[in-house]
């Protein structure tokens, strides 16, 4: 007995490819449960059809020869379980999801997947200051310039500011503490993102505490480092910024400045015209991935998560 293959049927023979595409497009804006309820289908059926749709998207997109890549890790569950996400910064889409952790061996899997020829074509790798990522890039794409992500660096500075806030809270007592208590979000947020009430609270806090005021102004000014187009100017700005820490008794900031000095080459690389890429894409992708994870809360299928991440920036079929 021979079974005839019909080209218009989906992997699930009870549905057509056209219907699978419709389900896949709907699942880009809604959860599996919502679509299952709307179409009166089984939950597993909707998931299977969506995964078929996403695989078709990836097959159509192909494997790009990336010139600039962004590397980051995401936590997929509690207990420090990480996976690596690599993005094409020029095409502005994730291209690889994998690894068992954030080790050099896991990072090497990406370059093996990409192939030697395409790895030799990478001219820029944007990442945080995690050493295994750097080592893997030096080994498999030695011609690529290493650029440390601005948002990760600013996050370190935000953590330093929070340590100053905690130390000031511990140093003070009585009524002087009330200006600091509960103001972590207000202090670490960009001023333009605060509500009118938040801006008033920030103004009151900075007026009441001179050391926090100094630390806040130093944090806000440090972002200018990425505006310079020549490394010598950027270095002069950094040296002036570091010199302004003298006598301020801001220990966390001094540790941050030493860290920047140790990793200077990967920061100054942004001054070169050929390395001017959108540094906000990787951070925006991380926010999108967090939304995907919230929607798929409780879903333990890692292959489904991989497909969702890799197709989240692709056009619909």
Topology:
Blueprint: H1 17-26, H2 32-39, H3 43-61, E1 68-77, E2 81-88, E3 93-98, H4 104-114, H5 116-119, E4 124-127, H6 131-140, E5 145-148, H7 150-171, H8 184-188, H9 196-208, H10 210-222, H11 231-243, H12 251-262, H13 264-268, H14 280-295, H15 302-311
Parallel strand pairs: 1-4, 4-5
Antiparallel strand pairs: 1-2, 2-3
Walk me through what this model shows.
The chain is of the alpha/beta class and 317 residues long. The protein folds into three domains: 17-61; 68-148 and 279-311, Ribonuclease H-like superfamily/Ribonuclease H (Nucleotidyltransferase, domain 5); 151-263. It is 54% helix and 10% strand. It has 15 helices and five strands. Strands 3-2-1-4-5 form a five-stranded mixed β-sheet, sandwiched between helices. The protein is globular, with a radius of gyration of 24 Å. The mean pLDDT is 87.
């Amino acid at each position: 007995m021979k079974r005839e293959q019909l080209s218009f049927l989906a992997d699930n023979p009870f549905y057509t490819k056209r219907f699978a595409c419709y389900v896949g497009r709907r699942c880009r804006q809604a959860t599996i449960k919502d679509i299952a309820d709307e179409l009166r289908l089984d939950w597993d059926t909707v998931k299977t059809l969506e995964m078929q749709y996403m695989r078709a998207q990836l097959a159509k997109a192909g494997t790009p020869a990336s010139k600039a890549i962004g590397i980051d890790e995401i936590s997929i569950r509690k207990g420090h379980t990480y996976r690596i996400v690599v993005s094409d910064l020029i095409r502005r889409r994730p291209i690889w999801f994998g690894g068992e952790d954030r080790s050099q061996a896991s990072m090497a899997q990406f370059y093996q997947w990409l192939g030697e020829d395409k790895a030799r074509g990478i001219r820029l790798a944007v990442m945080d200051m995690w050493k295994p990522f750097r080592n893997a890039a030096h080994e498999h794409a030695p011609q690529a310039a290493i650029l440390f992500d601005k948002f990760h660096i600013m996050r370190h500075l935000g953590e330093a500011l929070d340590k100053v806030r905690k130390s000031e809270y511990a140093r003070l007592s009585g009524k002087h503490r009330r200006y600091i208590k509960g103001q972590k979000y207000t202090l670490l947020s960009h001023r333009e993102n605060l509500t009118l009430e938040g801006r008033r609270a920030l103004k009151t806090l900075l007026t009441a505490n001179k050391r926090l005021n100094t630390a806040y102004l130093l944090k806000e000014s440090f972002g200018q480092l990425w505006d310079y187009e020549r490394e010598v100017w950027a270095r002069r700005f950094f040296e002036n910024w570091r010199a302004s820490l003298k006598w301020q008794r801001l220990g966390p900031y001094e540790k941050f400045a030493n860290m920047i000095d140790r990793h200077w080459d990967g920061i100054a690389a942004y001054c070169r015209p050929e390395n001017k890429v959108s540094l906000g894409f990787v951070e925006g992708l991380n926010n999108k991935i967090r939304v995907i994870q919230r929607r798929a809360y409780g879903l333990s299928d890692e292959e489904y998560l991989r497909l969702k991440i890799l197709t989240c920036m692709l056009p619909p079929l």
